[in-house]
Amino acid sequence: MTDPLLRVENLKTQFFTDAGTVRAVDGISFEVREGEIVGLVGESGAGKSVASMSLLRLIEDPGEIVAGEITYKGETIFGLEEGPDGELREREDMLSNEEIRTQIRGNEIAVIFQDPMESLNPVFTIGGQLREFIELNRDLPKDAAKEEAIRMLREVGIPDPEQRYGEYPHQFSGGMRQRVLIAMALACEPSLIIADEPTTALDVTVEGQILELVDELQDKYDTSFLWVTHDMGVVAEICDRVNVMYLGEIVEQAPVDELFHDTKHPYTTALLNSMPRPDRTVGELEPIEGVMPEAINPPSGCRFHPRCPEAREVCQRVHPDAREVAHADGHPHRAACLKHDVFDAGYDESPPLETATQETAGVPAGGRSTGGPGGEDGATDLKDSVIEDGGEPTDGTRSDDRGETHE
Amino acid sequence: MGLARYTLYRLLQAIPVLLGITIITFVLANLAPGDPVQLMLAGQEVDEELVEAIEQQYGLDRPLHERYVTYMAGVLEGDLGYSIHWGQPVTELILGRVGPTLLLVLSAYAFAIATAIPLGIIAATRRNEPTDHVSRIVALFGVSTPSFWIGIMLILLFAVQLGWLPSTGLVYPWRGPDAYAWIDTWPELLYQTARHLLLPMIALGTLQMATLMRVERTQMIESLHGEYVTLARAYGVPERTILRKHAFQNAQLPIITIIGLNLSTALSGAVLIEYVFNINGMGRLFIEAIQALDYQLIMGITIVFGTIFVVGVIVTDLSYAYIDPRVTYGEEE
């Protein structure tokens, strides 16, 4: 198999805030191959957008990429090595800020954002903004860039492009603005487009049109997409392969059909059960219990265990990484759940955590917060054992931090 | 509605405002204590008949609304009445004094804008660094210090102690070098104008500078966090262009509003600054008119100040409409 277009390995992006370190992206690995649409799915706050912005090294202070490797077409977008003093330092072959700006951003990797009103500058014309990006990324003179801009506007289905070229963003409808952003991305002729929830702000009929347009243009230009969304319906419609993110980690990774029909992670199952599906008739949708904990203080063990209906005692202690649990269509099917045999963590013998699940599901920072309603005999013992076993570093300072974030 | 029609529309809207200004001014001037005839006679003992004759001559025996109509008829022809104290038509007096005031206010604005915008941008890009803290202190000082005090301090330092700059009067470039015996050439005239203008300009402009700087900083910070800035970055636009083009233009809209609205503070500030620096502008004329209870002159100056302010606000609105394409000139969408 040829090298993938984009390879991300063990990427960690953290935000250093006064309240503590937010581990927004905590060791994710995935690939995007040529011509593929790869989904990055998860609830709000799972770290999807931070992950995608890390690919362009567009993380703003106080955020920072702290570990991992991002390789694009053989070039190192991010990479660390151990220096002679034992400290980590940036690798020599890592692209400089200037190189990232001129060689990667726009012309190799382009983005489409969620809110087309916010991401177009209200005081410049649509055409002016398009032309500027084309000039910059394709090295075209003004006139040619303008022609190209008009051609792209026509290509994404904007009627009367010559006239609309000179109009301002507020004169466009939401769907039309999103088409403009797609034109912008394609006009720069990148090999990869990061689409960060591009249809979330649109109504359903317009969303359908945009997805169709992307499908059509993707066939024509053979551009790869990293499609960031929380909507499993969109994933089913457009993606080839999917990565499901939960609290900064990828918990399941599979080709799209596999993911839907042979789901291997309880979180993915929960996500799928919480939305209507055309292929199944259900009496009632099942929302996922509780809210996602904050990435500032993730639960020990498996991060999903406080909300997981299948959680067992062992899930509180052992933190699973995503391992290959099946193989389909030449792609591995990875899942980070201890119930699979490859982990061999004693899941089957472990007592279920059902009471704890119900009691602690609603607590934002996970099931271990002190002073919560939990703490009946068995649960207390488990909590103690967690701290003793030390699945995650939980020293005194850290629990103090947690107390603060709760208030 | 196009920009031209919008302009016309705004000008028409200004008419009731200006009418309101004249009515309030006229009524207040007539309610104020002090009898203009007694003032004219300056305490001389005269008989009733003469007083009545004078009142009749000036129309003071007629009811208030009739006098207002007569007054407004004059105002429309450019006649703001007659100053008893100076023995000159009010219009003539004001025309002779409006130049220095406008020169002072406009240069103070120029100074404020030229310093506030770069300083605000620097503070925004170096948020919470020493530069930002210094600018915050300067702004706090500028906002909380009365302009006349700054003026006096500037005079004490630069005119009295160091002797670098003159402390009184102005040199008016529109009079030409021939009007001044001690100035021969145009460049010398302009140089002298600048020298005389420097201190009052800083004294009057500091407050505006401080306000504008803080607003510019806030706006730039907000603009730099806009998603369109992130998008421009994601498309490889150089940071310099982002600052100068993408973020900058968006940040200027509130600045324009503040400039327009602060025109009133600038004009009232000019009254004090002209007094401190002994500049023969409208502000000084205003104070002198009040001291002499010269009602016609007080009314005339109030109307002119009011008109300048209204025009300023209209210009603000128009430039807003010109810069921000979202301003729709009041048409229905």
Instruction: Count the beta strands of chain A.
Output: 14
- The structure class of chain B reads mainly alpha
Which strand-content bin applies to the residues of chain B? under 5%
Largest interface: A-B, 28 and 19 residues
Largest sheet of chain A: 8 strands, mixed
Biased composition (Basic and acidic residues) (chain A): 395-407
Subunit structure (chain A): The complex is composed of two ATP-binding proteins (NikD and NikE), two transmembrane proteins (NikB and NikC) and a solute-binding protein (NikA).
Region (Disordered) (chain A): 348-407
GO biological process, one term (chain A): peptide transport
Can you tell me about this structure?
Chain B: The chain crosses the membrane at residues 12-32, 102-125, 137-164, 253-277, 297-323. Chain B: One of its GO terms (biological process) is transmembrane transport. Chain B: Residues 98-320 form the ABC transmembrane type-1 domain. The complex is a heterodimer of chains A (407) and B (333). Chain A is an alpha/beta fold and 407 residues long. Chain A has a domain at 256-406. Chain A is 34% helix and 22% strand. Chain A has helices spanning 48-54, 97-104, 116-119, 126-138, 142-155, 161-164, 174-187, 204-221, 232-238, 256-261, 266-273, 313-317, 354-360, 377-389, 396-406, and strands at residues 6-17, 20-32, 37-41, 63-72, 75-78, 80-82, 88-90, 109-112, 192-196, 224-229, 241-246, 249-255, 323-328, 331-335. In chain A, helix 4 crosses helix 5 (142-155) and helix 5 (142-155) crosses helix 7 (174-187). Chain B is mainly α and 333 residues long. Chain B has a domain at 93-323: MetI-like (MetI-like fold, Orthogonal Bundle). Chain B is built from 13 helices and two strands. A two-stranded antiparallel sheet of chain B has the order 1-2. The longest helix of chain B has 39 residues, at 186-224. The interface between A and B is medium-sized, with 28 and 19 residues.
